[in-house]
Amino acid sequence: DGASLKDGLAENVAAQVLAIVGSGAGNYSHILFPSTASGKNVAPRVAAKLDVAQISDITKVDSADTFERPIYAGNAIATVQSADAVKVITVRTTGFDAAAASGGSAAVEAVAAVADSGKSAFVGREVTKSERPELTAAKIIVSGGRALGSAEKFQEVISPLADKLGAAIGASRAAVDAGYAPNDLQVGQTGKIVAPQLYIA
């Protein structure tokens, strides 16, 4: 509820995490963040302040200190092991089943909010509104590439099919770079990580 955390500024969120870890209240051995834009913004700051190596984008936990993560654009899986006392990890959420919405026995405790760092300021947020499913959570994705030839053709071919299937629309990096589709539709290594049940490209 702290005013410094209202807009999720990375400097303040990282400071809050470090304040909780530094209090020694939980003797934390693992600090996890989602592999989202926000998580990837905060996790490196926390890892740097703790002087530990960040483990990025894990898709499997082998043991308390050993994890699997994709490399080479997902063409290979690396098994990484960390000897750091505190492990700072980003998790590819599409690699794990959703946790149960109820149950569990973790205690919820109130902590004091950190003061605003003053290093950055929230200016504004532009949210893209769409009737379509959110790309990273969509069960069906219809994606287009550079072969479509133009932004008009992209819309003409991809949109009707996506409408019929109730699908999200994705685009390759080449299509985005060519201006056929907006950046927020880009999927893949340099775009959004997706795990649909059906992917049509």
Automatic annotation (TrEMBL):
Residues 1-126 form the Electron transfer flavoprotein alpha/beta-subunit N-terminal domain. InterPro entries: DHS-like_NAD/FAD-binding_dom, ETF_a/b_N, ETF_a/FixB, ETF_alpha_N, ETF_asu_C, Rossmann-like_a/b/a_fold. Keywords: Electron transport, Transport. Coiled coil: none annotated. The keyword Transmembrane helix does not apply. The keyword Electron transport applies. One of its GO terms (biological process) is fatty acid beta-oxidation using acyl-CoA dehydrogenase. Pfam families: ETF (PF01012), ETF_alpha (PF00766). GO terms for molecular function: electron transfer activity; flavin adenine dinucleotide binding. SUPFAM superfamilies: Adenine nucleotide alpha hydrolases-like, DHS-like NAD/FAD-binding domain. CDD domains: ETF_alpha. Belongs to the ETF alpha-subunit/FixB family. This is Electron transfer flavoprotein subunit beta. It comes from Comamonas testosteroni (Pseudomonas testosteroni). The lineage of its organism: Bacteria, Pseudomonadati, Pseudomonadota, Betaproteobacteria, Burkholderiales.
